[in-house]
Amino acid sequence: MIPAAVAVTAVGTWLAFRTEPREKARLRPVANADRLTALPEYQAALRRHRRWLAVAAVAGGMLVVSAAAAAARPVELTTIRPEEHNRDIVLCLDASGSMSSADSAVVGVFAELAQQFDGERIGLTIFDSTAIQVFPLTDDYEYVQEQLELARGAFDGEPGSSGFLGGTWSGRGSSLIGDGLASCVQGFPDAGSRPDQPDQPDQGVPQRSRSVVLATDNFLSGDPIFTLEQAAALAQEKDVRVYALNPGDFDYGTDSGQPGAQLRAAAEATGGAYYSLDSPDAVAEIVSTVQQTEAAAMQGAPRAVVWDRPDLPLAVALMSGLVLAGASWRLRP
């Protein structure tokens, strides 16, 4: 491109400064011209003419160089880390009576978030003495919002909504947290793995972030099949992070056997986190924190992005063209 630009410049310069044969024929010798060229006015006009010639030459050169640079398509290389929206979230709610206000706040927040989701899948499981999967992981956000609104009505005790929680108290005991969490973890599909190396993910199967939002006060009543520790171990095995929300954190001291301490240990063992709810109004802020944590964890691999950046050479070419036009006007015969 640059050799072509130089050739064009050379041809243009030759065409601009060559003398036509007809012009040569009109030239006539003048005697005693030195007396005319010695005049101060003539010398001043000659200096102005030479200055404008220099300006025109510089502008023309810059015009050619900048146009050639723009034609060469200058680029800018940057590196970005795109956020990936391939998350699976299971809401795992303790449906016992003491959890109603917290459960209502959780489903209310996610009903609003469902309108903004793009690529995420969400599921809902409720449990008391028995776990019930209300709906599996899905990205049908209209259906999700509808079901979460029904759930909020049931947790708020709206007339005629008690059937939504039906089946969760058909077993013995109450708040069987281990069984409930194990049922929620089992709601995730098996992750893709290589047949010859089960511990290595299959590169052909997209891996999705897995998290459980577990709302419970961890006040167990009955004999569960899974203890909370066993359910947490199952979550670790399936690469599921547990985020526990506890509206009844009334632990005394630092005894690890306290309900809150046990729930905290189980959640943190999975790589998740534990949140003590002082008020159901705090659910929105906690869920936002969880969402940001998940988004940070699921940032995509660095990706090189190439941008065309002809702005500067085109701007220089425009300015050079304007200057060249002005100089040419001043140099007209």
What does this structure look like?
The structure is a single chain. The protein is an alpha/beta fold. The protein is 46% helix and 16% strand. Strand 5 (209-215), helix 8 and strand 6 form a beta-alpha-beta unit. Helix 1 runs antiparallel to helix 4 (40-71) and helix 8 packs parallel to helix 9 (259-269). The two termini are 34 Å apart. The model has no long low-confidence stretch (mean pLDDT 82).
Question: Care to give the gist of this entry?
Answer:
The chain is an alpha/beta fold and 333 residues long. It has helices at residues 2-17, 21-26, 33-37, 40-71, 100-113, 141-155, 177-185, 228-237, 259-269, 283-297, 311-330; strands spanning 75-80, 87-94, 121-127, 131-138, 209-215, 241-246, 273-276, 303-308.
Shape annotation: rod-shaped
Low-confidence stretches: none
Number of helices: 11
Strand order in space, largest sheet: 4-3-2-5-6-7
**Number of β-strand runs:** 8
Layout of helices and strands, plus pairs?
Layout lengths: L1 H16 L3 H6 L6 H5 L2 H32 L3 E6 L6 E8 L5 H14 L7 E7 L3 E8 L2 H15 L21 H9 L23 E7 L12 H10 L3 E6 L12 H11 L3 E4 L6 H15 L5 E6 L2 H20 L3
Parallel strand pairs: 2-3, 2-5, 5-6, 6-7
Antiparallel strand pairs: 1-8, 3-4
Which keywords apply here?
single chain, 333 residues, alpha/beta, 8 strands
